[in-house]
Amino acid sequence: MAGYTVQRGDSLWKIAQETLGSGARWREIQAANNISGTVIYPGQALNIPGAAPAAAPAPAETPVSAPAPAPAEEPADEPVRDNTAALIEEMRRQDEQRRADAEYQANQRLYRDLSGYMESIGLGSLLRVGPSGEPQGWLWDQVRRGVNSTAALAIALQETPEFQQRFPVIIEQQRRAAAGTYVGAVMTPAEVLEYEERAANLMRSAGLPSSFYDQPSDFQDLMLAGVDVPEIGERITQAFDAVIDAPADVRNQFETYFGVGNTDTALAAFVLDPNRLLRDLEKYRVAAFGGAMAARYDITLNRSQAELIAAEMPDEAALGRAFETIGRQQSLFVESVGEATDLSAQVEGLASQFGDIAGTGLTEAEATARMEQRLLRREAAQRSPGGGAIVTGAGVVGLGQG
Fold first, then answer.
1. Pairing of strands 395-399, 389-392
2. Which helix (H) or strand (E) holds 1?
3. Could you please report the per-residue DSSP string of 18-56?
4. What angle is formed at CA 392 by the lines to CA 391 and CA 395, rounded to 5 degrees?
């Protein structure tokens, strides 16, 4: 059985004419190659079932004899009718082949266009070509099934394991939306890729460890939690950078309060955790600052107290001034001889600036009144002849009573 490779412009009739000697034998080629219709493609290999039959040898001459009666003539229009039908059939098949060729070329152009889209979203692994460069594989199958736009292709892609592995955030958003959970607009692959690129650039510029942005999966939880790229920037500048650049006692207090390791990686993981709100991270930073400032004046704040104070006074500059005021009042918290009332920075000092929010048991007014009474008594003792010794921040300076 001979072989034949389909050329552009071929049809089954034409191939049968050239290889079998008669275009009318095209059905033999169709049957030999299990072709259900008449459409063939350039480059397609066909089996040719047999050659045209050889002409029969001419019969030997026989003695001349009396002429036989002339046979009855067949109708003259029969061969004409057969030839006309064959010509019409050939024309129909050539037209069908031209349409098939045009469709094939259009599909090739569409394949090239859609290939560019798939490569742009990182799914070029689904593309295949044959040894002669002809399109094959998943995308070619989709084109031949009628996928003719990137929108239609995006829908078909979602069923592939490759898409689901590369864009799990899209699949999860769709799942949540189908379950009735509000997720806003489901992201497109282009939006996911843009998010990843912008977020990675922010993290890289901030000096975060590369393990936070070197894989697409690093960003999935942030996207699902609705943390947009500007917020990532705020988390970096207002939490990560602020703690990194803070004095050592502030960073140590941050680590103590919130169980964060003393490495940049641990801190980055903490501030980028999508389960933590940005406003909470800002409060944590201020709480650590307050705890460190308090320790400078021998005041101990636990995490709860520090967070309460940070919520009441979120401005670090104002918070710093409040503790500096307590520091300037240290002499009032050192009892002199004869002073029975016990005042302390831990109670009266904190309460004079923050009231009872730190669990002092005193209002701001009550704490201020106690401190003013001590100051007035000391001033009276200094004016009194023979007053008792007064212990201040500068030492024993006189006498007095508390």
1. antiparallel
2. none
3. HHHS-GGGHHHHHHHTT-SSS---TT-EEEE--PPPPPP
4. 70
Show me where the domains of the chain are located. Answer: 331-402
- Amino acid letter for position 13: W
Residues 392 and 334 sit within 8 Å (Cβ to Cβ): yes
pLDDT digits 0-9 by tens, 121-150: 999 988 988 888 888 899 999 998 999 999
Q: How far apart are CA 88 and CA 91, in angstroms?
A: 5
pLDDT class for 402, splitting at 50, 70, 90? very low
Six token digits for residue 220: 């999935």
Q: Is there a contact between 46 and 6 (Cβ–Cβ < 8 Å)?
A: yes
Closest by CA position to 271, among listed 295, 256, 255: 255
Q: Count CB neighbours of 245 within 10 A.
A: 9
DSSP bridge partners of 129:
135
pLDDT digits over 181-205, tens only? Answer: 988 889 999 999 999 999 999 999 9
Distance CA 205, CA 209 (A): 10
- CA pair distance 190, 186, nearest whole angstrom: 12
Do the Cβ atoms of 21 and 52 come closer than 8 Å? yes
